[in-house]
Amino acid sequence: MDTHHLDNVTTTTSVDITSEFRHHDPTTARINNGSFGCCPASIMAAQQKWQMKFLKNPDRFYFNTLKPSILTTRHLIKSLVNADHVDEISIVDNATTAAAIVLSHVTCSFFNTTFKQGDVALILHHAYGAIKKSLNAYVSRAGGHVIEVPLPFPLKSNEEIVNEFKKALEMGRLNGRKIRLAVIDHVTSMPSVVIPVKELVQMCRNAGVDQVFVDGAHGIGCVDIDVKQIGADFYTSNLHKWFFCPPSVAFLYCRKGDNVSELHHPVVSHEYGNGLAIESSWIGTRDYSPQCVVPEVMEFLSRFEGGIDGVKKRNHEKVVEMAQMLVKAWGTSLGAPPQMCSSMAMVGLPPCLMITSDCDALMLRTRLRECFQVEVPIYYREPMEGDVHPITGYARISHQVYNTIDDYSRFRDAVNKLVNDGFTCSVFSK
């Protein structure tokens, strides 16, 4: 086994990391697990077996195998996130699909006059772009008013988030308006920070917000999830980002009693009207294998010390360690303190790179990929008035079990070479 691995595999495990991820491009430092996740070779093999079960005898698979297999997955997810009942768990394609389910239900509440024109939906400014657009497409079109909660970055503490959220709640209730929905990230995508979801959900309850939807796209396998402690009406998370499933599969938790019978999958199939979980289990002929391999994923995780909790803990510790190594090498700083990092961390880039726009950030990301074989997202942070030599570019580094020290060293050395060569984004863009 590669001795450069960051102690992801303990001496007691039989998992061979190099073998499980041998399909990864060996020439690339892949420190962007956050975008697309990863799938071990053993899970890919399990997926192919599930696919063959269908292809060998589709009728038998449909009538005898599919629903019981998805029910098994739902039971496993129920236990992992501490839901009360398996009926609270539906398996869907991804977090964006889950958002469509919740938001279409909210839209109906506007159209049937349960909600009034001008009633409010809150969302974090740093929410994932597709979710922000979904909120506007569904809620704004139905007559709702969307308020984005501004969040400072870089962040120093949870209190900064709490204070901004409190202001947004107060704004949402001005002139007798009612806040019907709050969409709260568990881990924001870009910039990436862990949000104090339990505290924000409780603030929503105290403020009389009707429904709370937690977008935990990065949640399962990355941070702790206890849906009862979090207390939201809805929680979704992708299983293909940090939970080793093949793409694409996610779960949607809907707290029992919260008009669950009125929720429907956006694809209307023969199962329409049989409850969201059953509707979601069949949306027409397609590949359901990603939804069926969760038992095999649990077996894979059991080979690591501490199982899923051990993997989460080590990924967090290692991404912080590598982030601190990078900011020390570049004389910069983290975008958030270690306790606000998950398995991802925001690392300040040298200001002399002169990142002045989102286009610059994308251009630098492309240059790192094409010239140095480093895959990492770059975030542009607009400087505030009065900033002196501000850090305007941050790299979002991830750590997953396949990563090695060499991945981060290559990134460090690539940036150092750009700096030593006098590279700037402004010059290159011309």
UniProtKB/TrEMBL annotation:
UniProt keyword annotations, A-Z: Lyase, Pyridoxal phosphate
A Pfam family: Aminotran_5
Domain Aminotransferase class V: 70-256
InterPro entries membership: Aminotrans_V_dom, PyrdxlP-dep_Trfase, PyrdxlP-dep_Trfase_major
Keyword match Nuclease: no
Molecular function terms from GO: lyase activity
Transmembrane portions of the chain: none
PANTHER family: HERCYNYLCYSTEINE SULFOXIDE LYASE, L-CYSTEINE DESULFHYDRASE
Annotated protein name in UniProt: Lyase
Lineage: Eukaryota, Viridiplantae, Streptophyta, Embryophyta, Tracheophyta
